[in-house]
Design brief:
Distance between the termini: 77 Å
Oligomer: single chain
CATH architecture of the largest domain: Alpha-Beta Complex
CATH class of the largest domain: Alpha Beta
Number of helices: 8
Order of helices and strands: HEEHEHHEEEHEEHEHEEH
Helix content: 25-40%
Strand order of the largest sheet: 1-2-3
Shape: elongated
Strand content: 15-25%
Mean pLDDT: 77
């Protein structure tokens, strides 16, 4: 059965409206994977407004070039989310301020930048950071004494009792006992800093206050660093 030209014309999708895309490179929510952007020529009102757009989508339509997002990556291979295939990294030459500070970056972004995923000693030894930022230890990473101690204290998580939180084990060794309703607090707010001197016992409210204070302090110093960077750029651009 022949299909008329009019039906074929109706079946064809209209070309995507690429011409009116705008990107807010200085938005604080920008990452290597997502950028704040809008398409003022779109038929959708939500797309006409500022929203987070995958960098891969913008790259497909030619708005994000390789030289823009893949300039100079620094990677901290010690901090990674093995299951999610993410690692702590930053792009010092990125146009987006948030990409120039340390943040979680997925492997696909680094691969497009030509960075090869690096396997390090200890990656498969049972120690990794979970999405919440805490260090998890499996039985493989523990000594026999630690396994016995953790078993008696009920530190292992889940029915299979395979992994535990490192900071709770360190606190148990430091204090000898963790009361039932107590939580282990990180004094400096860094969840992966499990040195005994950085851990104390407290309440859930205390723990929440610690992390909130650390977040506000990090935001303060980040704003100071960005302001200093902007002042340096202005002084550099001044004639004479």
């Amino acid at each position: 059965m022949a299909i008329s030209d009019s039906i074929i014309e109706k079946m064809r999708l209209p070309p995507p409206p690429f011409c009116k895309w705008e990107i807010d490179w200085k938005h604080h929510s920008n990452t290597a994977s997502n950028l704040m952007a809008r398409n003022t020529s779109s038929r959708r009102k939500s797309t006409q407004q500022w929203h987070m757009v995958p960098a891969g989508r913008l790259r497909e339509i030619g708005l994000v070039s390789q030289s823009t997002v893949e300039s100079k990556w620094e990677v901290n291979w010690e901090k990674r989310l093995r299951r999610q295939k993410m690692v702590m990294a930053r792009n010092l030459l990125s146009r987006s301020p948030s990409a120039r500070v340390w943040h979680w970056v997925d492997y696909g972004t680094l691969r497009r930048a030509g960075v090869t995923w690096k396997k390090i000693d200890g990656e498969w030894t049972g120690r990794h950071i979970n999405p919440a930022g805490y260090v998890l230890l499996s039985r493989k990473a523990l000594s026999k004494e630690d396994v016995i101690l953790a078993d008696k204290a009920g530190l292992f998580l889940g029915a299979k009792k395979i992994v535990l939180l490192e900071h709770r084990l360190v606190a148990l060794k430091k204090y000898g006992h963790i009361p039932e309703r107590s939580v282990v607090r990180h004094i400096n707010g860094k969840k992966d800093d499990n040195r005994p001197c950085n851990l104390i016992l407290g309440t859930t409210q205390d723990n929440t206050r610690d992390h909130r204070s650390a977040t506000l302090l990090a935001m303060y110093w980040r704003e100071r660093a960005l302001a200093a960077e902007a002042n340096c750029r202005i002084e550099t651009d001044m004639p004479g």
